[in-house]
Amino acid sequence: MNNKFGTPNPIQFRTVDSKRGIDFEVKLRCNGVYSYKIVDPLLFYTHVCSNIVGEFTRDKIDQQLKTEFVQALGGGLAVLAEKELRPSAIALPENQKYLKEAMNQALAVDWAETRGIEVANIAMNPPTLDEEDMKTLQQMQNSATIGSNAAMMNGMLGKASADAMVGAANNSAGAMTGFMGMGFAQNAMGGGAGMNGFVQSAQQNQGVPQAAPAPAAAPAAAPAPAAGWKCPKCGKEGNTGKFCAECGAPAPAADAGWTCPKCGKVNKGKFCEECGEKKPEEAPLYKCDKCGWEPEDPHNPPKFCPQCGDPFDDKDKI
Questions:
Q1: DSSP helix/strand/coil, 162
Q2: Could you tell me the fold of the domain covering 3-132?
Q3: Which DSSP category does 300 fall into?
């Protein structure tokens, strides 16, 4: 009974909270008292005091047991970490039974199987954390709490905006400079879109109804193509006369063709589109039969097609 223990060096304790997405190791110190009992007297006598003549007192073994207990404490606390117990909850009476079971498992070989003893009870004082680790853990917990609560997130954003406005108004370089700084910060955050998206995500996780997004503006209708002809010299579109209204260049000649001797229709094919009259033989038109290229003057093609190099001959007549 009343075997005191303490951790001379910090023990790494893994703090896990799967609901908040926290998984962080802290440096932990703890102390308290434990008691042990003999569960196999014959085994205890055989391996502990069989060669002792006279009386055997517990003070001859307590220091050894204490050292082994502290060494096994890290493994015992790891079992509590797997149960996602916070450091402050380790010392609670309802959790001491888990620690006792974990310690008996960790000391099974050295105590139960070798000496016939086991841990009977543990009473631990509240553990202490490294100061830096405690601050970091509190920040992680606060961030997780605010991030999962849309109302708290909106309140935090509103307070931050109000504080920023007050700070900007009191800026020693002038209020305008302060508000310019706020503008830069908003641009860096995408105009607040990133944070708004975060708040919306939190609202969805909590089932908070969101305002329906504004309907997207209809795309602007494409401008109708300008009627008339495009000047090949200056690019002016919409000309209707014989000369460009911008630079005075003459209108480009219409694509040449053959005139039907029967109805006067200008055509490009082998037959008149209006009356079906066959094209006169004396007015042949040419078009490359390989790539489809048409010369500017269909009556007078070059010797070779500039696109594919095929020579122009009777096969290219249309």
A1: helix
A2: Tetrahydropterin Synthase; Chain A (3.30.479)
A3: S
Do residues 35 and 62 lie in contact, with contact meaning Cβ atoms separated by under 8 Å?
no
Nearest to 297 by CA among 270, 268, 277, 262: 268
Euclidean distance between CA atoms 236 and 33, whole angstroms: 97
| Residue 67 neighbours by CB under 8 Å, 6+ apart | none
pLDDT category of residue 64 using cuts at 50, 70 and 90 = very high
Residue type, 220: A
What does the pLDDT look like over 15-50, one tens digit per residue?
Answer: 888 777 788 888 889 999 999 999 999 999 999 988
292 CA to centre of own chain: 53
| Residue type at 79 in one-letter notation | V
> What does the domain layout of the chain look like in residue ranges?
3-132, 253-318
Identity of residue 317: K
Q: What does the pLDDT look like over 158-203, one tens digit per residue?
A: 666 667 666 656 666 655 555 555 555 555 445 444 445 554 555 5
> pLDDT at residue 269 above 70?
yes
Contact 133, 6 (CB under 8 A): no
Higher pLDDT, 20 or 123: 123
CA dihedral of 28, 30, 34, 38, whole degrees rounded to 10 = 30
pLDDT of residue 73: 92
For the sheet with 3-6, list strands across it. Answer: 3-6, 31-38, 117-124
Q: Alpha-carbon torsion 161, 166, 169, 170, what sign?
A: negative
The residue length of the chain stands at 318
